[in-house]
């Protein structure tokens, strides 16, 4: 295994590829894949990822693929693992990119077995290790995990985008909502604009409620057992379908802008 800052024997050194010597250790750094090949690997786990997202991660300094003399990007297995780390960190832990960059920096300095929240850490026997996530979060925890300040969490709560339980705590999904709201705020889209998104989501929930109500209300017969679990699973599946449809409609509208 190579120490940090040095290429492993048989792997390319200076000029071979930009993340040389960093995490993941013991993974090939020889650039053999086009951006399309790297994308096809990542889409097995992240179906929604596109070439533009990979280039965005490069712009953020999270991965540095090798460039051929003609300017084409080529990727190594190590590059793909770093990309997977970044995508999983945002998907699973809703980490802002500056925090993802810090986590990668920690891994780069500390060796192959350094844990990192949101990382796709694989043990020797192939098991995935995920950090524990509290079932309820304080406003301070939401702010810290989403990379925003307490005032933003308060504003999102007063605007109805974030909702607390009877004890004033937030569900884990509040971190994702705050993170995404923060990303939109960077483009001048504030809580006032996001109320229309909240209202649209509420209308979709009303439709979902109508569909799952008969399943949840089953009180007798062989179908009574587990009715609540089945209704929740159905509601979750419908929510994913609504999300996919909304994404497709947005993309269709964006395509018409070209």
The structural class is mainly alpha
Average pLDDT level:
78
Helix content: 40-55%
Rg (CA only): 22 Å
Q: Tell me the fraction of residues in β-strands, as a range.
A: under 5%
Q: Name the assembly state.
A: single chain
E-strand count: 5
Distance between the termini: 49 Å
Query: What's the story with the biggest beta sheet?
Result: 3 strands, antiparallel
> What general form does the structure show?
globular
Secondary structure tally, helices: 9
The main sheet orders its strands as 1-3-2
Reading the helices and strands in chain order gives: EHHEEHHEEHHHHH
Unreliable parts: 1-19, 114-132
Ordered list of secondary-structure elements with their pairings:
Blueprint: E1 33-34, H1 35-42, H2 51-59, E2 66-67, E3 73-75, H3 77-93, H4 97-110, E4 121-122, E5 128-129, H5 139-146, H6 150-158, H7 173-185, H8 191-216, H9 227-257
Quick summary of this structure?
With 258 residues, this protein is mainly α. Helices cover 52% and strands 4% of the residues. α3 crosses α4, α5 crosses α6 and α5 crosses α7.
Description:
The chain contains 9 helices and 5 strands. With 258 residues, it is mainly α. The strands form 2 sheets. Strands 1-3-2 form a 3-stranded antiparallel sheet.
């Amino acid at each position: 295994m190579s120490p940090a800052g040095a290429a492993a024997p048989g792997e390319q050194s200076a000029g071979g590829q930009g993340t040389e010597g960093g995490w993941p250790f013991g993974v090939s750094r020889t650039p053999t894949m086009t951006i399309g090949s790297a994308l096809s690997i990542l889409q097995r786990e992240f179906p929604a990822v596109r070439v533009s997202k990979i280039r965005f991660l490069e712009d953020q300094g999270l991965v540095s693929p090798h460039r051929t003399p003609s300017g084409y990007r080529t990727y190594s297995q190590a590059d793909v693992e770093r990309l997977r780390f970044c995508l999983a960190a945002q998907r699973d832990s809703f980490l802002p990119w500056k925090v993802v960059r810090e986590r990668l920096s920690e891994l780069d300095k500390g060796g192959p077995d350094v844990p990192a929240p949101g990382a796709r850490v694989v043990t020797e026997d192939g098991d995935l290790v995920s950090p524990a996530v509290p079932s309820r979060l304080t406003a301070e925890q939401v702010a810290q995990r989403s990379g925003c300040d307490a005032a933003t969490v308060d504003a999102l709560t007063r605007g109805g985008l974030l909702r607390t339980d009877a004890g004033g705590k937030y569900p884990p999904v509040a971190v994702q909502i705050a993170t995404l709201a923060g990303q939109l705020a960077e483009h001048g889209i504030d809580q006032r604009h996001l109320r229309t998104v909240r209202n649209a989501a509420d209308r979709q929930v009303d439709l979902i409620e109508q569909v799952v109500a008969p399943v949840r209300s089953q009180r007798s017969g062989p179908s009574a057992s587990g009715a609540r679990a089945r209704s929740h699973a159905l509601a979750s599946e419908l929510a994913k379908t609504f999300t996919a449809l909304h994404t497709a409609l947005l993309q269709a509208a964006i395509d018409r802008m070209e």
